[in-house]
Amino acid sequence: MGFLLSKSMDQNFKNQQEFMLLNARLQMERQIMMQNQMRERQMAMQIAWSREFLKYYGAFFSLATFGLTVGAVRRKKPGLFAPVIPLSFILVYQLDMAYGTFVHRMREEAEVIMTQEHGRLDLPHGTPTFESIEKARRAKSSLSSLLEK
């Protein structure tokens, strides 16, 4: 009788472990999907911001270029046209960020860094662990209790 009960309990325990493992896996997959969706939304907002900024900067650049060109021709001073050069670099950068391959090139460079220069990504004192977080939490908790007294 005890053997049958023990065997049944072992089977229930194994079934429960499998269920918990499956549940943890589903939870992690959902967490990964949620984080990826948040990342995609943040990137979409950044690209949208770049496109909106480009509209305003494009208008400013056009007016500034027109004004500086007219001023340089009327006064016969080509030096007045000089600010157009750095302003055009900013315009091209914004165009590339908003509509070009900037994001793709940035992603490729990030992949190179992650594969070939992984040491640059290390955090000071390494990756936080459960133990280090608990140690800091306990230290803060004991400090808070000492301050309350």
From TrEMBL:
Record carries keyword Transmembrane helix: yes
Keywords in alphabetical order: Membrane, Receptor, Transmembrane, Transmembrane helix
Name of the protein in question: Plasminogen receptor (KT)
InterPro entries linked to this entry: Plg-R(KT)
PANTHER family per record: PLASMINOGEN RECEPTOR (KT) (PTHR13411)
Gene Ontology CC annotation, any one: plasma membrane
Transmembrane segments: 53-73, 79-99
The keyword NADP is annotated on this UniProt entry: no
Pfam families associated with the record: DUF2368 (PF10166)
GO terms of biological process kind: positive regulation of plasminogen activation
